Amino acid sequence: MGYEDLLLEKDDCGIATLTLNVPNKLNALTVKMGMNLPLAVDEVAQDDSVRVLIVTGAGRGFCSGADVSAMQLLTGAAEQSRFNRLQVTGWPAADIFPKLLKPTIAAINGPCVGAGLSLALSCDIRIASETARFGVAQVARALVPDFGLTCYLPLAAGMSSALELMYTAELIDAAEALRIGLVSRVVPPDDLMKTTRELANKIVQQAPLSVELTKKMVWRGLFDRLARQLDLETDSIRICRQSEDHRESVKAFLEKKPLPTFKGK
Questions:
Q1: pLDDT per residue as tens digits for the range 159-202
Q2: 6-190 belongs to which homologous superfamily?
Q3: d(Cα 12, Cα 17) in Å, to the nearest integer?
Q4: What is the CA radius of gyration of the chain?
Q5: In 31-184, beta strands by DSSP E
Q6: Where do the DSSP E strands lie in 137-237?
Q7: Which of 15, 59, 153, 206 registers the highest number of CB atoms within 10 A of its CB?
Q8: Is the pTM of this model over 0.90?
């Protein structure tokens, strides 16, 4: 089955590959992608021949975060209705990979920012190309981290590193991501998919019930915390989207101008 803004492929070895497929926007999380991610993952869940899911991005990026061009639509008279649509279609993507009982591996081939970082961190294992870059972009748009990032990032990197990334919106390279625990391996770009598939094949060879129960045990204790964080993020995003700082930051981004001087209102 085809999914707009996504590509789902399966092989004969029990490995499925889900590719975020909006390369002209560095695979920004569009409304259509948010709608289709749960559907594609559900197909993987229902297919007994699939034992491992690899998640990657088309072209030179993994996922550059939420589609900023869509943010511009949220600043007009129809802001609330459009925001509700994005919330309903996009937020389910925040926890679909942990809820999938099959192992997931993120093959991070390039920029992995904002909501894209959340998607990567929600996978069980992350392998990065040397060209990958990581960051929390929301503060630069006068927003707050969302898509579960306030749960996933401290869990992976620890409180200090997580808050530094969240407060500054600075990008870090793959070597730094490895140092603070965002990824478990960094490999040359040409070796990324080969290395990821080798790991996936090792997992496929294990007892599937044991792997499934192991994943279930590890993630189950985090679901209550994640649900609470998603509620807090949603409330905070609503407040931020109504601010002058947010409107001006989106305008500056789209017009390729420097960030405005934020006023706190």
A1: 999 999 999 999 999 999 999 999 999 999 999 999 999 999 99
A2: 2-enoyl-CoA Hydratase; Chain A, domain 1 (3.90.226.10)
A3: 12
A4: 18
A5: 52-57, 104-108, 111-113, 125-129, 133-135, 172-173
A6: 172-173, 185-187
A7: 153
A8: no
